[in-house]
Amino acid sequence: KLGGYGIIRVLPICPPPNTTLIYPFMMLALWGIIMTSLIGLRQPDLKALIAYSSVGHMGLVISATLIQTHWGLSGAMLLMIAHGLTSSALFCLANMNYERTHSRALLLLQGAQIIFPLMAAWWIIASLTNMALPPTINFMGELLILTTLMNWCPLTIIITAIGTTLTAAYTLYMFLSTQHGKLPHGLSLPPMMTREHLLLALHMIPLILITMKPNLLF
């Protein structure tokens, strides 16, 4: 997100989007969406999977920012703020699992829904926002970015469509791997504490409020 802010700050000295100088950076940003999503699909480490998810979403932000239109900058700003809260919530959930199992491997985290039904509710809310499900603010940001990219070059819809599909795939893979399946034996898991629910609520309440009134960010 700091990198996205830096790109917005240096836009006055960037080449216009209709020059050939911008094409290599656009290709790297769009290809990065596909690559990080594919790596996320094969990632056994929960924390690394969430980190690759952040990198993939920032590829959308960079490509929209380089086009230098009002819609592109608005979508990039929405997605940076929304994914900053969503990604942080996912990292908090991953750390809560790590504190209980002392492992980030998805194989040791499965079946948590049986013991922690409230944590499973937080997991599904964070996962749905990460997938940019309507009418979340993530969806609004991605919709503005996809529209901007398609107006700039219609062929980009192929890459962004593949990236969006892969994002949904590895997010579902992450959720199903941690919440469903057979619970490993020999684990002594303490229950969730009030401070953990408060921490996650402080991530999700701003997302819901921004979704209800997104023009505050415009």
From TrEMBL:
Keywords: Electron transport, Membrane, Mitochondrion, NAD, Respiratory chain, Translocase, Transmembrane, Transmembrane helix, Transport, Ubiquinone. It is a multi-pass membrane protein. It is found in: Mitochondrion membrane. The chain crosses the membrane at residues 21-41, 48-67, 73-94, 106-129, 149-176, 197-216. Signal peptide: none annotated. It catalyses: a ubiquinone + NADH + 5 H(+)(in) = a ubiquinol + NAD(+) + 4 H(+)(out). Residues 1-166 form the NADH:quinone oxidoreductase/Mrp antiporter transmembrane domain. GO terms for cellular component: mitochondrial membrane. Core subunit of the mitochondrial membrane respiratory chain NADH dehydrogenase (Complex I) that is believed to belong to the minimal assembly required for catalysis. Complex I functions in the transfer of electrons from NADH to the respiratory chain. The immediate electron acceptor for the enzyme is believed to be ubiquinone. This is NADH-ubiquinone oxidoreductase chain 4. It comes from Aspidoscelis inornatus (Little striped whiptail).
